[in-house]
Amino acid sequence: MKKELVKFEFEKETKNSVRFKEIPAEGKPPIVGSLYVQKWFAGSAKSLQLTIELES
Known about the structure:
This protein is mainly beta.
């Protein structure tokens, strides 16, 4: 099973969500790109990380 840790930084705030942009690993293309997270969860976070796990 493949697992990857993806890091994001704050990009902009929208009406009900916060947009984060991916910080790709050096020499690799982005996996996700932009990620929208609801404000009630994101709060005032300026960065987040997400673990993606592929299932077979």
